[in-house]
Amino acid sequence: MRAAWYEKQGPAKDVLTVGEMPDPHPAAGEVRIRIAASGINPGDIKKRQDAFGYGMAYARVIPHSDGAGQVDKIGSGDRIALRSTRPVARAIREERRYRSRPPARRHRYAE
Asked: Which residues contact 35 (CB under 8 A, 6 or more apart)?
């Protein structure tokens, strides 16, 4: 999958990398969401710039606060009941084509 990430904080032109990463595979109790639309939130920019003084939470950060997509894969293990395969995934913290999340982290909106 194509993704944007940074491994150190600073100005976007100096730290952001765009490239390919392996597709995530949902674990038991998770769903994978194929991201259809993604936005950049001001919080993403502030964290990349270390405006809050927290430093890096992870060695590699894939910035993403807002996105929408469709469930395309369900993890093994417990069965997950889905009323719709068109959830809007919000606050999933990653800018990428696919993302695995527990179903409690997804929000459904009227069709």
From this structure: 67, 68, 69, 89, 96, 97, 98, 99
Query: CA 69, CA 36: separation in Å to the nearest integer?
Result: 5
Sequence-distant (≥ 6) Cβ neighbours of residue 32 within 8 angstroms: 24, 25, 26, 71, 72, 73, 74, 75, 98, 99, 100
pTM reported for the whole predicted model: 0.65
Phi then psi for residue 5, to 5 deg, are -155, 170
DSSP for residue 32: E
CATH code, domain carrying 73: 3.90.180.10
Tens digit of each residue's pLDDT (9 = 90 or more) over 24-75: 888 877 888 888 888 888 989 999 999 999 999 889 988 877 778 888 888 8
Tell me, what DSSP letter sits at residue 29? T
Per the structure, the complete domain to which residue 76 belongs is given by 2-107
